[in-house]
Write a structure and sequence with these properties.
- The chain is of the alpha+beta class and 151 residues long.
- The protein has one domain: 2,3-Dihydroxybiphenyl 1,2-Dioxygenase, domain 1 (Roll).
- Helix content is 23%, strand content 25%.
- It has a six-stranded mixed β-sheet with strand order 2-3-4-1-5-6.
- Strand 3 and strand 4 form a beta hairpin.
Amino acid sequence: MAIAQVPVVDPPKEELPVPTTSAQLRLTGWDHIAIVVPDLVEAERWYVDVLGADVVGRYNWGGDISHPVTPHEDIRLGKDVISLFHGDPTSSTPRLVHYAFNCRSMDELDTWKAHLKRKGVAIRGPMAHPGFGAVSIYDHELAAGFRDGES
């Protein structure tokens, strides 16, 4: 789904009540957020030089050819990880743009997966990331969950 195809909805001017949660658990935070960049070398240089990021790993580029995935890298800014995937940011597939939440255990992960499914949010995960326990939610599916999963 290209970014230009996502409908933009203006927020209402009148006051709205703050939503309440139906989630059985509380997330501890993000595991990582993935974005698409057209130039991995330049993106890496910018995040490291300008923002002080640390490179966590390069996958399928820059000396690593052992990962069966699209070329990308993980960088760390403070406690947060951003996965930079190589591609065209204006026409990225949902596989590349995603949000992955931290889960403390496989039981918690299963509880979250069931909750998101009940809410109509299509998920994919857990992904095979060594050391990660994450429920990955892909961009177009998260937007669909906001529209369709309000029960």
